Amino acid sequence: MMQNVHLAPETDEDDLYSGYNDYNPTYDTEELENDTAFQQAVRTSHGRRPPITAKIPSTAVTRPIATGYGSKTSLASSMGRPMTGAIQDGITRPMTAVRAAGFTKAALRGSAFDPLGQSRGPAPPLEAKNEDSPEEKIRQLEKKVNELVEESCIANSCGDLKLALEKAKDAGRKERVLVRQREQVTTPENINLDLTYSVLFNLASQYSANEMYAEALNTYQVIVKNKMFINAGRLKVNMGNIYLKQRNYSKAIKFYRMALDQIPSVHKEMRIKIMQNIGVTFIKTDRDKMKKAFQKLIAVPLEIDEDDKYISPSDDPHTNLVIEAIKNDHLRQMERERKAMAEKYIMTAAKLIAPVIETSFAVGYDWCVEVVKASQYVELANDLEINKAITYLRQKDFNQAVETLKMFEKKDSRVKSAAATNLSFLYYLENEFAQASSYADLAVNSDRYNPSALTNKGNTVFASGDYEKAAEFYKEALRNDSSCTEALYNIGLTYKRLNRLDEALDCFLKLHAILRNSAQVLYQIANVYELMEDPNQAIEWLMQLISIVPTDSRALSKLGELYDSEGDKSQAFQYYYESYRYFPSNIEVIEWLGAYYIDTQFCEKAIQYFERASLIQPTQVKWQLMVASCFRRSGNYQKALDTYKEIHRKFPENVECLRFLVRLCTDIGLKEVQEYATKLKRLEKMKEIREQRIKSGRDSSGGSRSRREGSAGSDSGQNCSASSKGERLSAKLRALPGTNEPYESSSNKEIDASYVDPLGPQIERPKTAAKKRIDEDDFADEELDDLLPE
């Protein structure tokens, strides 16, 4: 066996890769064409190797084969088949490999390890640019075009639209020169389409920014029609925007839809924005349609006779008799009805479209006024101007409203009366009663039968305290217009001030029959019943009130007060608590709830209410004393002591706080008791000295003393008029440990001051009187919509 084993020669031990480049000549494929045995094997019908026969010896038989070391050894496969390249019966087997893999020995011999190729020396110098070559000129021109496009965009972002357009035009000129040079040097396929697209798109954008819409559309058309620009169809959105600015709405919708068709469904956001543009365009289309429809409405002929027909041209008795006969016949009445209906439709249409047909309602009203002035309804222009002023009032722009109304001071009497009525209303809202009275007089003098003017005049007289005279103006307004609910409401308030409660109740009940769901009327009825000492009826009407406005905290607190006066503490607590939940800053409600919890022996729950009261009135020491008293009554003496110390730090001259500090320190056994006791004695002594000085001052001035006694008597009378609720609360709080000073009484108050004051002045509606007023109470928002003309 060892005769077939050949050891590696020891001559090349230092070269691990030697021998890989040596191979047997049998493996040489270059001589295969001259090898007859190989060519014969290829030409066989199956092209396969010679078949294995029984003559082939077993695997133990060896056959010579050449190795890489120059020796030949006879080897046989395990199947008895000769090895590749072996010679059998004079026939040489073809080789299946050409040369061995690996490094060549010759390449490594005699060379140093240099993986970075540093031995090759420096690179040769770069060739100098030829600036005169066409390619270099084209490259520099392309760079210049890009710079101009960037400068144009920067100028546009800085607001210099003119410079941006000049840069865009310059870029367009240079880009056309660049295209011609490229066509001369290279093939048309090498033209930079991206650069051409950016130049044209920027130029179109700058044209549009400078409102040169025709040029912008032409440039966009160049881009869109060029099929070589991919997705250029999306620019039809920009073209649609330009048509929209030009108010060519049909074309704008057309281009929006064309752009929408070219946007794939995957771009959902862009498609939604385009559809939004289509919707906006349809709305603007409606604006034009509204204008055209209004102009057609104005142009409708009434086919009625002029008023001059019914004026007698002579003193002929027969003619005068005929004119008197036809002046108010059925045909004349039909003419009046037709004219009134036409004016109503025109005014309603103008008020509807004016706020939406232009960029602002003022511009829209101006357009309607100009159209009306050029028609047969010239007298309606003044009414539209007044509606414009009322719209300013809706937007709380009082200065513009006053300026608009003052334009009518020199108009005819009817228009002057309407404008003066509204001016009186505005000045009354601003508490400028002198100006309000002046314009109210002007309105009444211009039109004595204007119920709104009379109502405003009554309001100014009411503000001066002359209730009887105010009632006369309200009655006159009702005689002129029995449906004037404002005058009826105000006369009810006037009767309340005059203590004529039956007449006031009658007015409010009549008003309730007209305005079934008016919160103000319901409250006034309940208040009148309360003044008439009928709490059950007052509660019933207040229950109707909170069914309309369930979140009104003052109505809820008033219900709690009435139930408390009736002795129903549970119901009173329910409504007081609801009032506190909706408005937790009412000090009267907080005081009642705190006293209620103390009365029911839940001092811990009363603490949160008195703490809130101390936050609302931080300078009132009584609330903080009540907090400390609640801590002490609940057994938390340490917390009570800390609270009293904090109160003493804020109010060092409060005697009650020092008394309880001395008492607590004594009970607990603290050393600070002596310090607090000393401070208490000093304060009590100072209080005695102060009282003696006051007493001696009173004794030395008899006349002034008598005057002070009279004042004291009036004060005592005022205190006697305090509500029973306040007295009960004060009695409860005085009974608590920690206070010897009386608490402030809570007086009976209206649900809002505006319920007591007269009804606000009226806004004149064109052709009709105003229906509501603006109140500064909880129900003002509900009335505002009805106050202004519909």
From TrEMBL:
<dbReference type="GO" id="GO:0019894">
    <property type="term" value="F:kinesin binding"/>
</dbReference>
<feature type="repeat" description="TPR">
    <location>
        <begin position="553"/>
        <end position="586"/>
    </location>
</feature>
<feature type="repeat" description="TPR">
    <location>
        <begin position="519"/>
        <end position="552"/>
    </location>
</feature>
<dbReference type="GO" id="GO:0005814">
    <property type="term" value="C:centriole"/>
</dbReference>
<feature type="repeat" description="TPR">
    <location>
        <begin position="233"/>
        <end position="266"/>
    </location>
</feature>
<feature type="region of interest" description="Disordered">
    <location>
        <begin position="1"/>
        <end position="28"/>
    </location>
</feature>
<dbReference type="GO" id="GO:0042073">
    <property type="term" value="P:intraciliary transport"/>
</dbReference>
<feature type="compositionally biased region" description="Basic and acidic residues">
    <location>
        <begin position="764"/>
        <end position="775"/>
    </location>
</feature>
<protein>
    <submittedName>
        <fullName>Intraflagellar transport protein 88 homolog isoform X3</fullName>
    </submittedName>
</protein>
<dbReference type="GO" id="GO:0001822">
    <property type="term" value="P:kidney development"/>
</dbReference>
<feature type="region of interest" description="Disordered">
    <location>
        <begin position="691"/>
        <end position="790"/>
    </location>
</feature>
<feature type="repeat" description="TPR">
    <location>
        <begin position="485"/>
        <end position="518"/>
    </location>
</feature>
<dbReference type="Pfam" id="PF13414">
    <property type="entry name" value="TPR_11"/>
</dbReference>
<feature type="compositionally biased region" description="Acidic residues">
    <location>
        <begin position="776"/>
        <end position="790"/>
    </location>
</feature>
<dbReference type="InterPro" id="IPR011990">
    <property type="entry name" value="TPR-like_helical_dom_sf"/>
</dbReference>
<dbReference type="Pfam" id="PF13174">
    <property type="entry name" value="TPR_6"/>
</dbReference>
<dbReference type="GO" id="GO:0036064">
    <property type="term" value="C:ciliary basal body"/>
</dbReference>
<dbReference type="GO" id="GO:0097730">
    <property type="term" value="C:non-motile cilium"/>
</dbReference>
<dbReference type="Pfam" id="PF13181">
    <property type="entry name" value="TPR_8"/>
</dbReference>
<feature type="repeat" description="TPR">
    <location>
        <begin position="587"/>
        <end position="620"/>
    </location>
</feature>
<keyword id="KW-0802">TPR repeat</keyword>
<dbReference type="GO" id="GO:1905515">
    <property type="term" value="P:non-motile cilium assembly"/>
</dbReference>
<dbReference type="GO" id="GO:0060122">
    <property type="term" value="P:inner ear receptor cell stereocilium organization"/>
</dbReference>
<dbReference type="GO" id="GO:0097546">
    <property type="term" value="C:ciliary base"/>
</dbReference>
<feature type="region of interest" description="Disordered">
    <location>
        <begin position="112"/>
        <end position="136"/>
    </location>
</feature>
<dbReference type="InterPro" id="IPR019734">
    <property type="entry name" value="TPR_rpt"/>
</dbReference>
<feature type="repeat" description="TPR">
    <location>
        <begin position="451"/>
        <end position="484"/>
    </location>
</feature>
<dbReference type="Pfam" id="PF00515">
    <property type="entry name" value="TPR_1"/>
</dbReference>
